[in-house]
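[stage:ingest] chain + small molecule (zinc ion)
[stage:ingest] validated
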Amino acid sequence: MRYCLNCGAENPPEPCENCGLTMQLAAFIFRRRLVYFTAIFLLGTMAFLPAAKDYPPLELDQMLVFLGVVAALTLLLAVVLDQRARRGQSLEALRRIFRALLPLPWMLSLLLFVNGWLDKTPPMIAVTHVVSKFTMPGLVRPHRLIVQSWRATGRLERLPVDEDDYSRFRAGDAVEVRVAPGLAGIPWVYSVLRHEPGLVIRAPAQPHSP
Ligand SMILES: [Zn+2]
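[stage:predict] done
[stage:export] tokens:
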């Protein structure tokens, strides 16, 4: 059985009686859309980078892993869709999954941006020390300070910082991490400062009374 690449009609006559396109034109439109949609998706993953740079979430690495998995899945689907289109096989189910994945990086980027940009709650201050640091060559060049966690959940935090902060802190340094709660509840790193011993540290800001 063959399917119309444009509307999914089964065994379409030439031209398709449902959408009026010839097989050749339907194939051309299908490929062009596939390329456009893939490009829109990749732009969304690019938009994530400035959002994560301005308002770096505390769990940035987990988000990057998630985005990487979604990107790999979407690109794989684009390849499979193209192959199935060449063989004239049914596309509808995969096409629906592909389209559902397309807005994800855009939504995640927008969420991070709004989460930080509209967050007016004063950041809480945690005093901790740097255990080690980590960077990687390449296009994105992540800079992470690994610090002892102040939270009950984990023993270490991987703080996303800029290149300046990365180079000025060393293992053993005491630091003040300012973490804002985020409008959408995604905590993000407001700043990392050197902790000067002897200075009185304000208690974490607690704007909400119980
Ligand atoms: Zn059709």
